[in-house]
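hey m, so remember when u said the tokens were messed up on ur end? i reran from scratch. heres the input so u can diff it against urs
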Amino acid sequence: MMKHTIETIEKENTISKGTVQILDGYSFYKFIEALSNIRDEIPLRFDPINKVLNISVMDSHRICMMNINIKEDTNIEVTDLKRFLKVKKNINVKVDGSVTGEQVCISLDDFRDILKIKKETQKNVKLIFGDPYKLEIEKRKDNDYGLIKKSLVYLDLEFEEILLSSLESVEYLNKITISKKLLSDMFYESNKYSGICEIKTDEKGISFGEEGVIGGYEAIYPYDILESCDCDGSEDGMYAYHLLDVIKNFLDIMEKGDTIRIYQKTDYPLKVIIRFKRINTTITYYVARRVLEEESDDDKEELDDNGKEVF
């Protein structure tokens, strides 16, 4: 039996309490599997007020940032809300007045293995938050399969707090919605000449290109074959392929109804939003421009607190 020390009681008081139910457990498992290919550990923050499970991570060089919001398919149960709202330690109050609890950390490889689901079983998944030391997971379909209960111990790791309000407030004038087919084609044909991709957007569409010692490459996708093209003027930027590969990693799990939208603005990072309809999940991914050698000796851009690139 666990001894309830002062530290334990404080930790119990700061943890968010409630459940997130995902009806399409298999699609959620494939999403976590794709995410585990690019990250080892992730921080989780459960927000019972906005009914969202949030994952926000940034690489050590501050070149790219990923924000993931997973919303429950039906409804989120919130327990002991009055006590939760009174707690002060490790609680963030956002501009819109919402409250989120303490951040916890899990191993993605372990989570993927524990979550593993066969497509034909059509099980749903319930993530249960409340224990300050572990995440509880339930998997079930109906009485044919019974109830599977598992748990995953949190890691004792700390992640940098990421404030997205400044980036989210940036107005991008060029916005392109591109199909999975076209983007998959671009990744298949590209990254043969250099490790840098030049992306250009305007009212005519979007293009991807690169130059190298052996030659060059350009993929042009006009507005009439895009799902949408909303551009005001011309924008362009250079981006490292290994950072864009994060997007490629999620293409294989996209299904009908899922969307990819690219936002571009001078002196701001490229913004890519991927929406997965079946699991009610949104990825917002920011990639800083790559600085040309003649512009700076340091060819890696950083993002400052307002989301603008630091030279």
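this time it looks ok to me. The mean pLDDT is 80. if urs says something different then somethings off w ur setup not the seq
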